[in-house]
Amino acid sequence: MSDTSTSLFSPIEIGAIHAKNRVVMAPLTRSRASAGDVPNALAATYYRQRASAGLIVSEGTQIRPDGKGYVTTPGIYSPAQIEGWKKVTDAVHGAGGKIVAQIWHVGRISHPEHTGGTPPVAPSAIRADAKTFLPSGAFEPVAEPRALTLDDIKQVVDDFGTAAKNAVVAGFDGIEIHGANGYLVDQFLRNGANQRTDEYGGSIENRVRFMTEVVDATIAAIGADRVGIRLSPVTPANGLSDSDPQPVFDLAVSELAKRKIAFIHMIEGATQGPRDIVPDFDFAKLRNMFGGVYIGNNGYTPELARERIARGEVDMVAFGKAFISNPDLVERLHKGEPLAEANRETFYGGGAEGYTDYPTLTGEAA
């Protein structure tokens, strides 16, 4: 690639998905789902406004009721939720965009008020150093989880496959497994949360097993060319850590490469924090091992995005907060225009304010 401005805006094939540019809208929890955790008409407007992205990754969407960790996050397990998402995907496709569903189970980052009165589930019964907003409005520490049994694990894996099928029924172009930021898949990978002594814990091979089973279930459901995964090898988000992350993620990515999935979406560094939190961690090694579409995420300025794509260090770049306040982010990047600042007070919950009312360059609502 020669001209950097062309590089960021050139098309790319992401497995079975044709993207018109290399700008990705990162998954952004906005906590605005309606009763029953159903996406609503406002969500359809919000995503349609941002359909100029090469690829939109939806907000985290729980695969089942106990996968929920935050208020009013959407699900993709009930008929009403699938119908709600159909309106969103229709709106995005009508505006020429592509969208995948980020499917998640938050594991231990939850509370009985979110999980129907039962303890959250996790690889091991180790409480996370994290808090969550509850339906009552309180901001409380997450609860101590119970360790999943082997039968439980099989069911969760099956539920990821079902969620992938539901996503395609709802009109999504594919799915992204949330394997990052201290949620359930990540909890199995890293020994700060996984202290099991069976085939899902202990050795690196055992800790990677849950991730590969989830990936295989989604591949069986919708095909490898519509499956991606998000990883965050070194982020301390939600109190998660690993004593030696490089070999864990070397093995994880080598397994993903074998399966020829559509993409890896990599959080490089600490989520919403420094990119060099573990200076000697080798992300380039993972990118080269994977061989497929690699989406870089975390702290990307427009300049860094152009440079890294031009050098072939990433294939696409994901922007998060910039997409909240700039529905026309792609146009602004293309023209070199300044970006509007986001209002943090309206990130979570509420209605149209701070959600669908950010203006475009022309000064009009998107």
The biggest beta sheet reads: 8 strands, parallel, barrel
What share of the residues lie within helices? 25-40%
Structural category is: alpha/beta
* CATH homology superfamily name: Aldolase class I
- Give the helix tally: 11
Low-confidence sequence ranges: 1-6
Round the mean pLDDT to the nearest integer and report it.
96
The rounded Rg comes to: 19 Å
Shape: globular
- Strands of the largest sheet, in order across it? 3-4-6-11-12-13-14-15
CATH secondary-structure class = Alpha Beta
CATH architecture: Alpha-Beta Barrel
Topology:
Elements: H1 4-8, E1 12-14, E2 17-19, E3 23-25, H2 41-49, E4 55-57, E5 61-62, H3 79-94, E6 99-104, E7 121-122, E8 131-133, E9 139-141, E10 146-147, H4 150-169, E11 174-179, H5 184-189, H6 204-222, E12 227-231, H7 245-259, E13 263-267, H8 283-290, E14 293-297, H9 302-310, E15 316-319, H10 321-325, H11 329-335
